Amino acid sequence: MFMDKSQRNYFDFTLLLLIFLFMIVSCIAIYSAQKYSPYGINFAARQAVWYAAGFGVSAFVYFFDFDQIKKISPYAYVFGVLVLIALFLAPDSIAPETKGAKAWFEIPKFGSLQPSEFMKLFLIIFLARVISNHNEAYLDRTFQTDLKLLGKISAVAVLPLAFILVQPDAGTAMAVAAIVIGMTFISGINWRIIAVLGGIAAFILASLVAIYLKAPDLLLLVLDPYQLNRIHSWLDPFEDMQNSSYQLAYSILAIGSGTMYGKGFNAAQVNVPEAHSDFIFTIIGEEFGFFGASLVISLYFILIYRIIVIALRNKGPYESLIATGVISVLTFHIFENIGMVIGLVPITGIPLPLLSYGGSSLLGTLLSLSLVLNISAKTKKYMFSEDD
């Protein structure tokens, strides 16, 4: 094909506009949520600062060429794993246990930093390199080459997954698994292999459900009591709503009390713990009702749709794999977070992308989206292409 002389790019201004809309919604919702916070901190102002910092860092990353990103991806991956190991070995003075997990570094005058949030991005760019390089080396696909690729993907994923699980942080571990599954699905591996793996996963899940129904105490071999109690409270949140299921029960009550149009800005009456962070969607549901919650969910649908369009429009396999990884992790986070606050899935303690308060989560998400914007801008217009 011949490149059009204009070399038009497709910078996705819609995606950029969506990010700004999420920033506005986030700061408004956090401002309402913080009135019940026991910390005495202006989280809305801090979130605005984190957004500004995220835009600054993302602007720097945006100008990287993807050949450069591909070259540095192994170093970024190794750095991320080493930081996770350092977190595991760090003393409580710099990495204290919070809410039963050792997942954050405490940095004086800065706050906390969660390495696993950045590890997800490092995993995406390195896994995209591993898959694209393998596919370039083995143009004639066979069962053996597909198994070899599956082995490479597993080898890359096992270290970050293991160190995130020992924190323990089951929610982030599932997000990492979502990245691996999504990128494996479009890696070109034979669908029969993927079907077998899916069948094995379904069998394991069904076995765990059967064990829970027949002998739940056996799950203590792989889960701690706190995690098992979360499953109990998820299945019946109103049985012990003043103790283990307090957060979920009041989350459901808060969203339900919003009815169709909500109680109005800053008029929330139900006190849900950590509403400014993982449970920010309860504030949206209570103050703006079904209508406001539906608008937020629609914004997420448009966000994912725009990334899919960018992934399909782009001509490079490495860039498309990166976009797929971003789609996978965002989709999982959105479904899991909204699902857990309405009682659809168990609580895992993962944030709602772009809305929940949290510097590490917000920076990681903005960096991921900056790569997608980079992909959109680097996509060229070709004569006689399918887009014409």
UniProtKB/TrEMBL annotation:
Q: Name one GO cellular component term.
A: cell division site
Subcellular compartments? Membrane
TM spans (from-to): 12-33, 48-65, 72-90, 110-128, 149-166, 172-189, 194-213, 288-309, 321-348, 354-375
Q: Lyase: present as a keyword of the record?
A: no
Q: Which GO terms describe its biological process?
A: cell division; regulation of cell shape
- Give the bilayer topology: Multi-pass membrane protein
Keywords, in A-Z order: Cell shape, Membrane, Transmembrane, Transmembrane helix
Name the UniProt record assigns to this protein:
Rod shape-determining protein RodA
User: What's the source species for this entry?
Assistant: Neobacillus piezotolerans
